[in-house]
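Quick start: read one record
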Amino acid sequence: MSTTVFYKKLIIKNSGWDYLLKFFIEKQYSSERKSGFLTISSGHDYYEFNYIYRQPVYIWQYNFKTGTIDKVESFTTELAEVYIDKRLGLLEARGKKTVVSKFINELHLSGKDLVIDDLEVHPKVILRYLGHNGLDFSITRVRIRDFQINENISGNCTLRVKGYKESLQIIEDYYEQIDCINFELNYLSNKPVNVTIYKTGRMVIGKVEDLTDKDILEELRKIVSGVIKNV
């Protein structure tokens, strides 16, 4: 099982952060609402909460009393776990892409003072940060757009580079065309933690048995925060 984490940049133009907290409280989830926020906690430099999205689904079910097949309404509930670092203006949302997108759309409706941008930190920058800080990692795959085979043929390709000494040079050579990079963090556990970074600020983290999601997420948050501070 893997965890998907989305990182975005938040900018508040005129109002302070309290305006955003007020919005979360006003939009708290209840049984009458289709979506909303739950378990809102805040500190001097962060907000942490869950975003709930509920939608109806319909199933056909046999009614033994009437002998008919009836259409029955049920509900599915999806959850995004959200953390906001107020110092860095960093938004971290964990969950399925569909529910995170709905949450971000809801944030857009909070007012004109809030701007949400992609966190445009190229995977190469994160790898450079890991190397400069002496963190043990190894690159395993690189996905390249419009890879030119010859003058007439090009296409998207995935290169398996685990154990290849020149993998960083490949990233240098195809910097503008790289969509995502897979790498392993080797210092968190007895088994490597597999991470995929996309240009848009999305990361997918492979599950490791002897680590909790919280352990891995805190380490990634530390890495992303460190990168932002040094960009």
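The first helix runs from residue 17 to 26.
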